[in-house]
């Protein structure tokens, strides 16, 4: 049987075994359960312990933290979309591209291929079973016991952000050992309504938080790259069409902006990459300061 078919079949079987909604009562699948089911498709050298620990996080964060535990001798990565190879152009190691492919928020058909049959890691299966038991108990409670949620009183500590009633493990911080509270990445909605720009920022690096900018050190960045601590600033100007005077002015302003952003990123322990739409824009920036890391995205407005 082809490997892609095996993966799809395993995913369907996992979903059938673990989901047990009561008749006529559809359930919203928890992100934790979704992550456990996705991780069950792959072989792990630690029996799935890392996955269970981080399953309450978004998939890109889980993938980044547990990539070391993946049995990579049995997994092949194919950069089907070519986004990862382009994002790492000039400094890419095969492992970096592989992590980028594995950590993609969406499942891309043919991107991750497992060699041989996969037996679900024991810790992952226990996590799925525990979640199912917990969900069953919640469904079995009489509806009369359901009470309207009340606003917390002034003396009551608010529930930690990211916790869910269905989670049976405590939430895990999204960044380990941040240098300062200001350096912790905070997802915030995209500042502008420039849809082509926002789409480029989400898909090209690719963005760990699709649909969001990220606030670091008091500064908004367009994206935090999946799998690595790299912040991105995306420019979708059609620089080639500008007059010589306007090109010179744009480059002068952008160099000042990029120097400030790179400084903040470095202080907080992040790399910094600039994404521009054209080779001409990249060349003009490097002519003024060749110390910047710049990638050509090809994104159009």
UniProtKB/TrEMBL annotation:
Signal peptide span: 1-19
Chain residue ranges for the region called Disordered: 135-205
Domain DUF6310, first and last residues per copy: 178-299
Biased composition, class Basic and acidic residues, residue ranges: 191-202
Keywords: Signal
Classification via Pfam families: DUF6310
Keyword Signal included in the entry's annotation: yes
Entry-linked InterPro entries: DUF6310
Name of the protein this chain belongs to: DUF6310 domain-containing protein
């Amino acid at each position: 049987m082809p490997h892609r078919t095996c993966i799809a079949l395993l995913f369907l079987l996992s979903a059938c075994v673990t989901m047990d909604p009561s008749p006529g009562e559809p359930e919203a699948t928890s992100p934790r359960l979704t992550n456990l089911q996705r991780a069950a498709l792959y072989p792990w050298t630690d029996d799935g312990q890392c996955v269970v620990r981080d399953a309450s996080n978004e998939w890109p964060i889980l993938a980044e933290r547990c990539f070391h535990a993946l049995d990579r001798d049995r997994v092949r990565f194919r950069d089907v979309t070519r986004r990862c190879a382009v994002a790492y152009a000039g400094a890419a190691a095969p492992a970096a591209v592989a992590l980028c492919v594995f950590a993609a928020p969406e499942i891309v058909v043919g991107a991750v291929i497992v060699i041989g049959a996969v037996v679900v890691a024991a810790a992952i299966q226990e996590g799925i079973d525990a979640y199912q038991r917990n969900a069953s108990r919640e469904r079995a409670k009489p509806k009369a016991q359901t009470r309207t949620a009340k606003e917390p009183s002034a003396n009551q500590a608010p529930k930690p952000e990211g916790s869910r009633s269905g989670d049976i493990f405590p939430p895990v911080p999204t960044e380990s050992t941040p240098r300062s509270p200001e350096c912790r990445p905070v997802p915030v909605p995209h500042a502008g309504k420039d849809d082509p720009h926002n789409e480029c920022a989400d898909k090209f690096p690719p963005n760990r938080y699709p649909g969001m900018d990220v606030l670091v050190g008091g500064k908004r960045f367009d994206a935090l790259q999946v799998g690595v601590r790299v912040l991105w600033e995306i420019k979708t100007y059609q620089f080639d069409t500008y007059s010589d005077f306007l090109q010179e002015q744009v480059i002068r302003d952008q160099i000042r902006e990029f120097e400030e952003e790179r400084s903040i990123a470095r202080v907080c322990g992040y790399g910094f990459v600039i994404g521009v739409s054209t080779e001409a824009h990249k060349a003009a920036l490097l002519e003024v300061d060749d110390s910047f890391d710049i990638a050509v995205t090809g994104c159009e407005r």
